[in-house]
C-alpha cells in the first residue's frame, strides 16, 4: 500500500470511529477529504491532524449532499472512498417509528450504494492514470452478519451493505478497484446510547476503542483482505451464525430478557425526553 499517494474521501469523519480512522490515515501520509455535517467539528478535526486536509459539509442522505461529495471527489481525483458514516438503532420493531426505519436504511445502506456508484468512475480513472489500485471500503458491523434483537433495522442495513460489498468485490475482480468490507464489533462511540452501552456491559460484550478499530482497518488495507471482522469471539460467532444459525439462536434467546430490560429503559428515556420537549 502506497499510503502517501492516496487521496481519501472519508464519510462520517467527525464520529468516534471516523476521527480515529482520519488520524491513522493522516499519520500514514494520506491526503483526506473529511466529510460530516458539522463544519466546526470538521475544522477542529482537520486542524488536529498531521498534514493538509480538506473538509466537506454534506448530508449523505440527500441528493444535494451526495452531489456536493461527488464534485469534491472528482475535483480531487480520489483514490480511496471510505463509506463510514452511519446511524444506530436500539428499539423493538414495534416501538420504531417509520421515519427512523427510513433514515437508518438511507444512511447505512442506500447512501453508501449511491456514493459507490457515483464515485466508481472517479476511482477507475484515478487508478488508470496512476497505474496503481484504488480502494472502496464499506464499514459494516458484526451485526451485518448476526441478527440481534432490538437492532432489526440496523441489522437489515448492515446485512444489506455486506451483500452489496461482496457482490461488488466479485464484480470488480477484473479491475484495479479493490473493494473491502470492514466489520467492527461494539466500539465506544456516541452511536451507542447509554442504555446500549450498559446492555453490552451486562452481556459481557467486549467494547473496543475507536483507535484499535482504526488500526485494524489499516491492517486490513495493508494485507489486502477483502473482509475483516474485528475481535474474538465475535468473528467466530459470525462464522457459526453463517453455518449453524440455530446454535446462535439458542445463545441469544437466553440473553433476550437482559436485552429487553435495556430496551425498556431506552424507551422510558426517550418518552421522558419527548415529554420534556413538548
Ligand atoms: N460504534 C460501534 O459500536 C460500531 C460497531 C460496528 C460498526 N459501526 C459502524 O461504524 C461507523 C461509524 O460509527 P461510529 O461508531 O463512529 O458512530 P458515530 O460516532 O455516531 O459517528 C457517525 C458519523 O456518521 C455521520 N453521519 C450520520 N448520518 C449522516 C448523514 N445523514 N450524513 C452525513 N454524515 C452522517 C455523523 O455525522 P454527524 O456528526 O454530523 O452526526 C458522524 O460523523 C458506522 O457505519 C457504524 O455503523 C460502529
Automatic annotation (TrEMBL):
Keywords: Oxidoreductase
Pfam families reported for this sequence: adh_short (PF00106)
Domain Ketoreductase: from-to ranges: 6-196
InterPro entries: KR_dom, NAD(P)-bd_dom_sf, Sc_DH/Rdtase_CS, SDR_fam
Record bears the keyword Oxidoreductase: yes
CDD domains listed in its UniProt record: SDR_c (cd05233)
Family: Belongs to the short-chain dehydrogenases/reductases (SDR) family.
Designated name of the protein: SDR family oxidoreductase
Organism: Marinomonas rhodophyticola
Lineage start: Bacteria, Pseudomonadati, Pseudomonadota, Gammaproteobacteria, Oceanospirillales
